[in-house]
Amino acid sequence: MSTLERVADDVYAWIQPPGTWWINNAGAVGGADGVVLIDTCATRRRTECFLAAVAEATAARPIRLAVNTHLHGDHTYGNALLPESTVIVAHEQTRTGLLADFLLTATPPIWSPTPDWDITQIRPPTVTMRDNMVLHNGSRRIELHHPGYPAHTLGDVVAWLPAERVLFTGDLLFHQVTPLVFMGSVDGALRSLDWLAGFDAAVTVPGHGPLIPGAELSNVLAAHERYYRFIRDTAAQAGDRSPLDVARDVDLGEFATWPDPERLVLNLHRAHADRTGTTMDLLAAFTDAITWHGGPLHCTA
Ligand SMILES: [Zn+2]
Fold first, then answer.
1. Is 140 helix (H, G, I), strand (E, B) or coil?
2. How far, in Å, CA of 276 to CA of 284, rounded?
3. What is the pTM of this model?
4. What is the pLDDT of residues 26-81, one digit of tens each?
5. Peptide bond into 18 cis (omega under 30)
6. How far, in Å, from the CA of 181 to the mean position of ligand 1?
7. Distance 72 CA to ligand 1 centre (A)
8. Rounded distance from Cα 182 to ligand 1 centre (Å)
9. Are 166 and 211 in contact (CB under 8 A)?
10. Could you tell me if 117 and 77 are in contact, meaning their C-beta atoms sit under 8 angstroms apart?
């Protein structure tokens, strides 16, 4: 059951359990000038539920702006359902990536069932940034920051409310779900953890999984660090073996209980590509993940 959780005065997090494939978190920041959304959802049904909850909580104030934390469809496909007057803001790499998206209109048989998008076209951001940008909603300040290097993707952006100390991390954090870095960088994802800690957030809204109160954040960051180091060390010991062969021999240990464990294979493909200076073949990586998993990846979207 998805819920709109109030994380500060007139600031909300849309939390969709269990945070697995295509089931993301999003947010809404109210103010005197209307509402600023942080991400949308993957499908029409999920996005409409999110927008209805936001409208109820904000007395249907107009959605002036929407931020996309990165290009992935679970955070962006719902852009198409926003009012025409809503301006969509993201990192320039997010716009570039979305313009090249092929998953929405020609979804390969990776997930079972295939998500019921009920959305027919990509709506890309029309305002882009590289490093930082500040959005003002009445007296409320919403800072957008890019870490400065690839991490979850090439164009990750966090939304930071300095007065309320609320941080929307997008998929730089997956809480209690296997992290995914196959379109970014294992080293960058590792490096981003200290950067995230530096905001000193009172509440952190991860891209997937439950809200993270301030006191829990250091444990969550430490768990991510252990996972990324595990991926990096496993890849470093791979020798000439393929990511799939390496993944078959791996003991996931403490990470075995996290949902979507097959992301191990995708993450090892990324580490392999980075280590060897080669380009990663996304569809080949997914094919290996399906093989490791023993069938299409589980999806409830
Ligand atoms: Zn993502």
1. strand
2. 16
3. 0.97
4. 999 999 999 999 999 999 999 999 999 999 999 999 999 999 999 999 999 999 99
5. yes
6. 8
7. 5
8. 10
9. no
10. yes
Give the SS3 label for residue 53.
helix
Each residue's pLDDT tens digit, 183-202:
999 999 999 999 999 999 99
Beta-bridge partners for 208: 174
Strand partners, 174: 208
CA angle 173, 175, 181 (to 5 degrees): 40
Instruction: Give one DSSP letter per residue of 60-126, joined into a string.
Output: T--EEEEE-SSS-HHHHGGGGGS-TTPEEEEEHHHHHHHHT--TTTS--TTEESPP-----S----S
Spacing, Cα 171 to ligand 1 middle (Å): 5
Ligand 1: centre distance to CA 32 (Å): 30
- 40 contacts: CB under 8 Å, gap ≥ 6: 26, 47, 50, 66, 68, 75, 76, 77, 78, 79, 81, 82
Helix (H, G, I), strand (E, B) or coil at 245: helix
Give, in order, the Cα–Cα distances in Å from 257 to each of 21, 70, 79, 202, 215: 15, 26, 33, 27, 23
Mean pLDDT of 270-286: 94
